[in-house]
Amino acid sequence: MQAHLYFICPTDQLETIIDNSYRHKNYYYTSLGNSLKFDHKTLNHLKGLILKHSIEEISLVLSENNHIIRDALTSRGFSKIRGLGELYREIMKQKQFTDIVWQKNNCSFTILSHYLNKKIQDLRIQLDFLDLGQIEIRGMIYSQREKVFNNIYSDLICRDYFSLN
Questions:
Q1: What is the pTM of this model?
Q2: What string of pLDDT tens digits covers the 165 residues of the chain?
Q3: Nearest Cα to 14, choosing from 153, 147, 151?
Q4: Between the CA of residue 28 and those of 3, 44, 147, what are the distances in Å?
Q5: Of 130, 106, 109, nearest in space to 58 by CA
Q6: Are 109 and 66 in contact (CB under 8 A)?
Q7: What gap in Å lies between CA 87 and CA 104, rounded to an integer?
């Protein structure tokens, strides 16, 4: 049976939903809003987990109604929690960009896609340094309303820089 590692936010409570939706040997790494830093200590833990359980695929998953991301976009009540300051700044920066160039009706999906794409890019770079072979990494957003996991927008759509000639 294929082993799969999911990066999730504990406020989303997705473990049971993932287990019922994906019949892999599932492992979870949790952090508020998927805000984890890929520092030396974290990477050593990840490497050990990947090697021990022969993990072949990693997914970064957030709910479309993630409490941490929603708070970053509104009241910022959790902003004093250690480690969330950078996440909040990144979310607000992307919201400002999205408000300018994207449709208003799917703004949160775009912001979440952009954020998860950046995390995937960071993780991919770090895993390449660990020389663990080819591990597929993807991002998904869970729709509670539709009860489905949607793939995030491509990183070709979610850019830090946009230029029109």
A1: 0.81
A2: 899 999 999 999 999 999 999 988 999 999 988 888 888 899 999 999 999 999 999 999 999 998 878 877 766 666 556 656 676 777 666 666 555 555 555 567 888 888 899 899 999 999 888 888 889 999 999 999 999 999 998 754 444 444 444
A3: 147
A4: 11, 16, 20
A5: 130
A6: no
A7: 22
